[in-house]
Amino acid sequence: MNTSDFDGTAARSVAERLRTWEWIYLGYLLFLPAQPYFSPDPAWWEWPLTITVCAATVLLYALALLRGPSGWNLWASLVPMAVLGALATPFNAAASVLFIYAAAAAGNALPWPVARRWFTALTVLDCVTALLSQVPLLYRLLGFASALVMVWVVGLLELQQRDRRQELENQRLRTSQVELLATLAERERIARDLHDLLGHSLTAVVMRAQLTKELVLADPQRARAEAEEIERNAREALAAVRSTVTGWRRTSIRAELEVARRTLAGTGVALQVSCAEEPALVAATEHELGLALREAVTNVARHARASTCRIGLDTDGERVRLVIADDGIGGDAAEGTGLTGLRERVARLGGAVQRSGSAGTTLTITVPKAVVG
Q: How many CA atoms lie within 13 A of 67 on its CB side?
C-alpha cells in the first residue's frame, strides 16, 4: 500500500473510530430499567438492583477495554460480568445483556479458539438462566433469544474489529518505519553532499587565501585576481549548501571538470583530460560521478603534492570508467571520510572504486552499464 494513500495518521483515525463503536454497546444497558419501569407491581429492591447491575457492568466493561488483553485483567472482567448476568437474569430478563458485554470483551481480547469456547459457555449460561427466571415467559423468551443472537453477533464483530485494528496498527508502524528510514537516508545524503561540496570549496578557499597572502606585496594584480576567485568559491559554496538542503542540487561531469581545472590551477597542478567519447548518463548517475570526481580532485589538491593530474572517462560497452591519476607522493595512507564516502556513492550505483599507485595515486571508478541512459 502506498504511504501517500494511507499514512499513519489515517490508520490511527480509523482505529480510533473502531474503538468508539465498542463504547456504543453500553446503550444496551437501557433495557435493564425497562422491566421494573413497565412492571405493574415492581418490588422495592428491583430499582436498587438494576442501578447496581448497570454500574457494575459499566465498570467491568471499561476495565476490559481500557486495560487490554492482559491475562489477569481480562478474566477479572469477563468472569464477574458472566456471574453477574447469571445472578441478575432470573429477576430481570434484560440482565442477560451482560452476556453480550462479556462476549464483546472476549472478542476484543481472546484468540478465536478461546473466544469461540467462551461464546458457547455464555450461550449455555443464558439458556440456564432463562429456564430459572421468575419473569413471565414472554420476557424470558425475548431475553433469551436476543442474548443468544447478540452474544455471537457482537462477539464475532469484535473479533473482526480487533483484527482490523491490528492491521491498521501494523500499517501505522510500517509507515512510521518507512518515514524514519527516509529521514535517515535524507540526513545521510545531506551529510555526504555537504562534505563533498564544502570540503572541496573550503579547500580551494584556504589554498587561494594562502596564495593571496603571499602575493599581496609581490604581485598585487594577481593577488586581486585570487581574491576575486576566493569570493566566487565562497558564493558557490553558499549556493551549494542551499541547494543541497533543499535536495535540488544536480551536478555534471562537464561542470566538475571545469571546477577541477580552476581548483588545480590555483595550486599549480596541471590538468590533462582525455575523453574519447562522453557517455550519456542518467542525471542521478552523472550527479554521483560528478561528486566522486570532485572528491578525488580535492584529495589531489590537498594531499598529493602533485604537479600533474590526469582525468580520463571512457566506456567499454558494459561499464563506464572514470580514472583520476596524479604524480604526487602516493603511498598507502589510511582512507579518510572523503574516500569512504566516495566508495559508498559508487557502491549505490552498483560500481566500485580501486585505489593504486606508489609513485602517485590512481583512482579508478567503474559504473555498470545498467545505470547508463
A: 17
CB atoms within 10 A of CB 363: 23
What residue has cell string 433495557?
31
Buried/exposed code over 168-207 (b: 16+ C-beta within 10 A; e: otherwise):
beebbeebeeeeeeeeeeeeeeeebbeebbbbbbebbbeb
User: 76: Cβ–Cβ under 8 A, 6 or more apart, which residues?
Assistant: 63
CATH of domain 253-373: 3.30.565.10
First to last CA, the chain: 30
Residue with cell 585576481: 225
Give the HSE-up count for residue 40: Cα atoms under 13 Å, Cβ half-sphere. Answer: 2
Residue 372, helix vs strand vs coil = coil
CB 133 within 8 A of CB 93: yes
Q: Give percent helix, percent strand, percent coil of the chain, each to the nearest 5.
A: 70, 10, 20
What pTM was computed for the model? 0.44
- 290-296-300 Cα angle (round to 5): 140
Q: pLDDT per residue over 77-121, tens digit each?
A: 778 878 887 887 777 777 777 888 788 778 877 777 888 888 888
**97 burial class (0-12, 13-18, 19+ CB within 10 angstroms)?**
buried
Write down the domain spans for the chain.
8-179, 253-373
pLDDT tens by residue, 129-188: 777 766 666 766 766 677 777 788 878 887 887 788 778 778 888 877 877 777 777 677
Report the alpha-carbon angle 32-62-69, nearest 5: 125
